[in-house]
Amino acid sequence: MMIQAQQLKNRDIYLNKLIGFRDTEPVKVVTGIRRCGKSSLLKLMAAHLKQTGVLPEQIVEMNFESFEFKDLSSDDVYRYVKARVVPGKRMYLFFDEIQRINAWENAVNALRVDLDCDIYVTGSNAYLLSSEYSTYLSGRCVEIRMLPLSFREFLDFHGFELRETKSALGGTRKEIIDKTGAGYSPREVFDAYMRIGGMPGIADVGLDQEKALALLDGIYSTVVMRDILEREARRRRQKIADPALLRKIILFLADNIGSNVSAASIGNTLANEGLLADENRKGAPSTHTVQTYVNTLTESYLFYEIKRFDIKGKEYLRTLGKYYIVDIGLRNYLLGFRNRDSGHALENVVYFDLLRRGYDAAIGKLGSAEIDFIATKSDEKLYIQVTESMQSEDVRKRELAPLQKIKDNYPKMILSLDPGLDSTYDGIRSESLIDWLLSG
User: Is 113 inside any structural domain?
Assistant: First the structure.
């Protein structure tokens, strides 16, 4: 059944990017993990066009996961669109999951050249990657990478309203109200976000943990089985030929978010723990094999790699990066709920919120000290440490020490669930992580 535009929740951060590129030459390419909202974003953009005076007949929408378009060739796609051109009017073409069409890039290029049109494309990350889009379209495309819901979007999708009221001491405090009028502390709702994550479809079942896990199982299976393994088969490649090894590497990366890892360390650790063995060598698979699998997982947007940056030498380091999983709910689905590495889980959430805000993020290296994130955007730079609490003096010393060693004047901050009473330490801000997320 067709989803009606008025039923869709706004994803303003992405919709505004599409609107900003409206009527420009590049093909707008929306990428991201499956079920993060790419199809809905195209519908939101189509609705925006109609609201700004574009006639419905100027808009052609084709979802290639629909049975209606299942067996089309690239020539069929070209003819289908040409037959619907309104003379003298600009056409707006929306192609959802177009990579399912063989030689689709020929149709898109031909339409771009032959028609007065504005083209919007989505593709499931592992079928067709952004680098391949760029190759096929000769650089005439702009990528808009979608992520699951931020904490602020999570409130909206689940029907919560954020309110500020006066506190007993004369300041303000935040309260989150649900559809029934019941009030919750931001920490209560944040804990729910940290459990079920931000995949948009979960909002359809509310905060029911069992149903959320069932939906996450479907998302995970689709990403791995359809996007990764089927894609390899379609392209007649055997680089990702072992589903068991793929799952073990996924579990390893999910278990080690925020930790320094390498392809060699992954293979050796799994072999030492008896979790895998190469039949020919009776030990760890080659580093090259593990790296190929890891690259596939980052190309599918299931995991993101973050590089290390030497602050003193002002260069990126090639050794030991870190990986974060695109959705914390998917991690809980894979590993179960637990608290023993909640600090890394908080880092995971902060990392993706930085990406949503348009920052490039890297790990900061300064001698033997490490800063969780160096966030840069244009001329802006921000140093961030993430921890659970700033109440303990030992923790304060540990978190402040790396930031205190940085001699430039860019802002430095520590985000925590319990920032304590002091808002600054020698010019270093101590801020509530939840408040920071809600401000984005």
Answer: yes
